[in-house]
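Hey, can you fold this one?
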Amino acid sequence: MQTHPILTITGSDSTGGAGIQADIRTITALGAEAMTVVTSLTLQNSLGIQEFYDIPAPIIERQIDAVCDDAHPQVVKIGMVRDAASLAAIVRCLRRHHPRWTLYSPVVCSTHDEQLMDDNLIQLVQTELLPLCSLLVIRKHDAHHFLTTQTNQASLHSNKQTIKQSTTTHTVEADGTHGRCNELCSAIAVFLNQGSTLDDAVRRASLLVPPHTAEDPLSGATVRLYRQFLTLQEQQCSHNHDVNYYANQLGVSPRYLAQVTHRMAQQTPKNLIEATLLARIRQMLVQVPPLSLQAIADQLQFTPQTLSHYFKRLTGTTPTQYRRKQLPNI
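Sure. Predicted structure:
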């Protein structure tokens, strides 16, 4: 499936822990292409931010237009925006270029609790930017700035993330540092860019970026193995559906792999493989022009009948019914 580059609009973090540097690292690690627009340069180190140089709003707007006119990104991720003029420039560009998905991961406070957005700017974001966004990914620490009492509190809990339907956009509240929140949003952007639904993209990214890894210094080896497993089965699930295969590739026993996935995601390896495979089937079913069920089955090492039974067992509907619902005009 052909994909466009992902555009990230945010500040530069000279420590590499968040910002443009972290976005590029996450997006490219997951196999996508990152294009960038810098909104602010930070002079910072492990002690915190020493100074800012905010890029003038006309230059931000010209950066966005230069990328969008040429590469037409369908997924745009927005991070640090520090003044009203820059916000207005970004909003104008979103309205002009109409990306399919716009994700916003606001930077209200730094990791060292430096205030990066004032109340006036937060109010402008609520009225001008959020109505254009598909998803808000925000630290729980900062959520009260953006989630009002009018927000619908019906929640779906998945892997310790809270996903809420707000008046303008879906919201994911994330535990941990802004860098972790940033990584989660970038991973969601990649999966949306690959054709996942919003729910699938959030689920897959939440599994890839577990909520407690930044706070658990003893989990380094476990985290690495878990992410290696997720990356491997994302790459190979089309033709390998067997837990034993992945355990062998990773050099561990199936039992140990199951212990790792349970610790990190409260899931079995089989559940994770099935979820990734299901997301892949859904992607292929909604491709335009549409693929035949035979072609999809061939690519995924199924027969058409087995594929239909597998899909119906996991979703309660047949592939044909799912396609008709998602693509009513095809």
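Residues 220-236 form the longest helix (17 residues). Let me know if you want another pass with a different chain boundary.
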